Amino acid sequence: MTAIGFYNGQFVQLDSPQVPIEERGHQFGDGIYEFVQIYGGRPFLLQAHLQRLEKGLAAIGISNPHTAAEWTQLINEAVRRSGESEAAVYWQVTRGATRRIHVFPDTSQPRISLTVYPRILIKGNSQGLTLLARPDERWTNVWVKSINLLPNVLAKELAHRNGADEALFVRGGRVTEGGSSNVWFVFQHTLYTAPANRHILNGITRQFVLKLAARLNIAVAEEPVVWQRVPVADEVFITSSSAEVAGVAKILVDNQGESDLHSASQIIPGTLLPALKDTRIVWSGPGSGPITNRLQQAFSEQVQQLRDAVPVDLM
Questions:
Q1: Residue 254: what pLDDT?
Q2: For this structure, is 156 an active site residue?
Q3: Do 166 and 275 fall within a single domain?
Q4: What integer best gives the mean pLDDT of the chain?
């Protein structure tokens, strides 16, 4: 496919030096982003993503530069230019470019950057994903889809270094979410996932899977799963735009740092990427159990429906 970029009102080459040094997204992480998968040339659940974008921008005081119709037109045009019917679109809106100062500038205008990539899917191996538990030390307003993602990047890198596919965040002894996903547990035929409060990003795929579960008459409890309960789960899976519904086979934890899952140490560490030399498996399972399979099948049917140009009717 043709790599497509868009910045400040123009389609550009991805390697073009277009971003000003004093762009607030570049200097402060002052912006909001979204990511959507393209199936059959059509964006999946785009209007839900645009509604979340609007809420995020309003939360941090950035005016939305486009209406939903204008965003839809821009994204469809970017996909058309890419020549790819199976793709992924990342875009962000920042507070703009101006002299570096912490308070909001009076003169800057929001700036958009957008990229079309080959479609990204997180699948792990055929047995399922491996998660590495990490203390959730992010800020309180995780529900805002901020471009400030350093804690997520560090957690996911540490997971990668230790043979895991994703980080599993635990705050105060309760599972919140993954490094870039929402996490689900099955206990005795009931789905459990953390409630959509300030401590998780309420994923669009998460919202969609909740509706799929209701359609399939699967019981759901939106309540935190305490860390001590994880070992007795029947199934575990994650959801996100890039993972869809992906089964988990193993959850790992660092024995020396497990106490930090309950209460973070106040000692300043020498590194935020420690070498983990004493990990153990706290949970292992089928990778894709009965409930996970049902949701995967239902999700795939909805994606095929979109490819067949039939409107998805659950969002």
A1: 98
A2: no
A3: yes
A4: 95
